[in-house]
Specification:
heterodimer; A: Cathepsin B, Chain A; globular; B: mainly alpha; 434 Repressor (Amino-terminal Domain); 2 strands; 52% helix; elongated
């Protein structure tokens, strides 16, 4: 059994699943649109949480939020379910496939057999689409992969019931109710408004203030933890920022693409200008990653070099502060 | 980033014949996507992280052989886990898992408890008890 589903590679898994499921249901939409309307862009330092034995920093909102907000803003309804028993989870999946309905699943990455070994970490907020079944093999459209792939029923059960932070618990989701036409104009404005609000929030670990906060942490790392650990921490920041799924520059380029597309839909030239500005900010993030990599590459870093990349982050924070303030004005 | 600037560096993705999607602007300033084989700054970061894991695994192994910790800690590191993740897989509290790292406590564990760990690590109880040197 195979549903006639078009797989399209995207940068990020959650955007990709939403965009591909929407397209299947007759409402084609781009990845940047999903990301922007769902207010995916963020910067946040998460205290008390360690990922791979290093501080956790995120360049995007929590898993699941993009789809949730996107759905609300364009007026579609999503059916979501989690399960205690793997058997029930499997039954619900099979039911949907039998009804010719491809579904989104949240899965853990560690046991995804088609991923390169080096990329298999205990990260539980990955998303993919199941679009068919051939005896005991499920047909998988994983948006970050170039082509479609497959998993056996045992392999699929394992990734659907991965444990740890953000355990998926068999999470299955799919859109069920669509308006006649998606109201993109209003949705775009809402999406942008929230991103501006989050990025400019008066919370020290969030948005542009969060970037400054991390810059100050970086300054303290070599003294506080020694160079080896400081290097490890720095490497983790670059991985969060640039690893598969971000589209480059900590999602800033995807956001710039969203502003460009939105400027045409809203007939607002200011957004096109701001898209160019965001591309430049994305380039600054890339420069930051490049300079950070020079530090953790040779492992004999000096305090000065940590100071210089912290200064770079301070500059990015200032640029983003100005940027989001003008963006807020541009859509009023 | 301009389309032609999208890095095409050698990376760990090559072994899996895999390319990732990046966003960039074309010559007319319009956004487009292009596949990338990898970028050195993040390949170095990933390789460092892998090396770090290998060091942790080796360190745990040495401590098991010296009788300072139980094989559970070694297998935990081998599977890139930390205590909260392992605790969640075996369905026990973190403090209990940590207690099982003590060789004296580990020795007295019954097969039911050992079986839980063995299942998560996909090994037999015999392999759990005796790590390979």
């Amino acid at each position: 059994m195979k549903i006639d589903f078009t797989h399209k590679q995207t940068a990020h898994c959650e955007n990709g699943v939403v965009a591909n499921l929407m397209t299947f249901n007759g409402h084609p939409i781009s990845e940047p649109m999903v990301f922007g309307i769902g207010s995916g862009l963020l910067f946040c330092y998460i205290p008390f949480l360690k990922v791979n034995h290093a501080p956790a920093i995120t360049y995007r909102v929590l898993p699941g939020q993009i789809f949730k907000k996107f759905a609300k803003r364009v007026g579609i309804k999503i059916k979501k379910e989690k399960f205690k028993s793997p058997k029930e989870a499997k039954a619900r999946l099979d039911e949907n496939l039998a009804k010719n309905n491809p579904v989104g699943l949240q899965v853990g990455v560690y046991n995804l057999t088609y991923f390169p070994d080096e990329y298999r970490f205990h990260f539980n907020a990955h998303n993919l689409v199941v679009y068919g079944k051939d005896e005991n093999t499920y047909l998988i459209s994983d948006p970050i992969m170039e082509g479609v792939t497959s998993l056996t029923d045992k392999e699929l059960e394992k990734v659907r019931f991965a444990k740890g932070a953000f355990a998926p618990k068999g999470h299955i989701y799919y859109p069920i109710d669509f308006p006649e036409k998606l109201d993109l104009e209003k949705a775009i404005v809402k999406g942008i408004n929230q991103t501006c609000k989050d990025m400019l929030a008066p919370i020290p670990i969030l948005g542009v203030r969060g970037i400054k906060y991390v810059a100050n942490l970086i300054r303290k790392w070599p003294k506080k933890h020694g160079v080896k650990k400081a290097n490890h921490y720095l490497g983790q920041i670059v991985r969060m920022q640039e690893e598969i799924g971000t589209g480059g520059g900590g999602f800033r380029y995807i956001f710039a693409a969203f502003l460009q597309e939105s400027s045409k839909i809203l007939k607002n030239d200011k957004l096109d200008e701001l898209s160019k500005e965001m591309t430049e900010i994305g380039d600054l993030w890339r420069d930051f990653a490049l300079n950070a990599s020079r530090i953790y590459k040779n492992r004999k870093a000096l305090q000065d070099s940590f100071e210089s990349i912290a200064v770079q982050l301070d500059e990015i924070s200032e640029r983003e502060k100005v940027f989001f303030t003008s963006l807020k004005k541009a859509i009023k | 980033m301009k389309e032609e600037e999208i890095p095409q560096d050698k990376s760990n993705l090559e072994s899996a014949n895999f390319k990732e999607l990046c966003y960039a602007v074309d010559a007319d300033g319009n956004y487009t996507t292009k596949k990338s084989t990898g970028w050195n700054p993040k390949t170095i970061a990933l390789n460092n992280a892998i090396q770090e894991i290998n060091e942790r695994v080796n360190n745990a192994k040495q401590r098991v052989l010296k009788g300072e910790t139980s094989p559970i800690e070694y297998y935990m590191e081998l599977h890139k886990m930390d205590v909260p993740i392992l605790a969640s897989y075996v369905g026990m509290w973190s403090w209990r898992v940590k207690r099982h790292f003590k060789p004296s406590v580990f020795k007295k564990l019954n097969n039911k408890v050992l079986g839980k760990y063995a299942e998560v690590f996909e090994i037999s109880i015999a392999e759990l008890k005796q790590i390979k040197e």
